[in-house]
Amino acid sequence: MKTFKIQIKPLNLPLKRRFTISRGSRDEVNNVLVKVHCDGITGIGEAAPNHRYHETQQSATHFLSEFGDYETENTYDISLLVQKMNDHAPGEYAAKAGLEMAVYDWIGKKLNIPIYRLLQAPGRTGPRTTYTFGIDKPEVMKEKVEEADPYPLLKIKLGTDYDKDIINAVRELTDKPVLVDANEGWSTVDQALDMITFLHKQNVFVIEQPMPAACIKEMQELKLKSRIPLIADESITGRESLQELSSQFHGINIKLMKTGAISTSLRIIHQARKVGLQVMVGCMIESVIADTASALVALWADYADVDGHLLVAENPLKGVEVLPQGHIQLKDLPGLGFE
Fold first, then answer.
1. Using CB atoms within 10 A as the burial measure, which of 66, 78, 186, 275 is most buried?
2. Is the confidence at residue 20, as pLDDT, over 80?
3. Domain check: are 19 and 65 in the same one?
4. Are 21 and 91 part of one and the same domain?
């Protein structure tokens, strides 16, 4: 029997800039650092809870404190940990993801092998990641375009009364391909179609979550009429029918903080392929710790939005890197690959 001692502490991350989406703004994110200790080895993880899913730093901390130390007879069977966490309490998927992440990191360090090799990933270099802009005034968006000069793909948050002005301001400075994320910000099919028609002429290659997750019939209609691939974000937590989602979207955005585990995310990717869905792997606003785990999952994806660590003022470690061409790359180090 092995016992993993679990250590948790707040991980408060000031942002480089105020970050605004259609639901609100923030200057700091309040995450949780998770460490596991066993056999003189420490594994590291991070929980990035989100109010949209009724999770907070306090609720994640409470779950992990109540869960207590993890005892197991099969150290390397991660499914046992996932099952035990789900049996312990429902929800709190960010906390569960942070703990599973830390145990995976420990396993790789214990075996002296990178986790991407252990999981037989296609390599350690993944898709090009987008660089995300929160909603802002058109004149400020121009400043953000200049800041994003090193990154070849842009992600722009919309869902305002001046969405077209934002895009026009960006297009005055760059013709880089753009992914648009409306964060459920368009309320009717007509409004969404009007924006899609406009965006189709603006080198927009993907649109995330154009309408609220509850608008199932509307999204089914929109998918049939859209000239741009539509990706589910708020509509998928990992516990929905992918067959039903395929009637509304062309693809899904998988986030560890919603699925609750690396292992669960990989299973969802394989299921998505079977029903013809494209796959994006995204992130919350989080440090390089959680982003490195997201980058691991993104090795199997079509698109990556693994840029949370680029938005925070300072990262606690070194992990996933963004290459000059925009591709994400893991370090060839034991565990998840932290320095």
1. 186
2. no
3. yes
4. yes
Range of the domain at 108: 2-114
The model's pLDDT over 3-14, given as tens digits with 9 standing for 90+, comes to: 999 999 999 999
Q: Compute CA 267 distance to the chain's CA centroid, rounded to the nearest angstrom.
A: 16
**Domain identity same for 307 and 213:** yes
Task: In whole angstroms, give the CA distance from residue 256 to residue 155.
Answer: 19
- Closest-CA residue to 29 (of 60, 62, 7, 6): 60
Name the pTM for this structure: 0.95
Residues 144 and 37 in one domain: no
| Residues 22, 91 within the same domain | yes
Percent of the chain with pLDDT over 90: 88
48 in Cβ contact with 285 (< 8 Å): yes
Collapsed DSSP state (helix, strand, coil) of residue 59? helix
| Residue 334 pLDDT | 98
Cα-based torsion angle of the residue sequence 129, 279, 284, 292 in order, rounded to the nearest 10 degrees: -60
Q: Indicate whether 103 and 251 sit together in one domain.
A: no
Q: Which two tokens stand for residue 299?
A: 């090795």
Please tell me the total count of domains within the chain: 2
Q: Which of 81, 114, 147 is the last residue of a domain?
A: 114
Q: Which two tokens stand for residue 111?
A: 């075996």
What's the confidence (pLDDT) of residue 217? Answer: 97
CATH number of the CATH domain containing 17: 3.30.390.10
Look at residue 148 in the predicted model and tell me its pLDDT: 87
Helix axis angle, 93-111 to 262-274, nearest 10°: 100
Pairing of strands 24-38, 41-47: antiparallel
Contact assessment for residue 94 and residue 257, using Cβ atoms and an 8 Å cutoff: yes
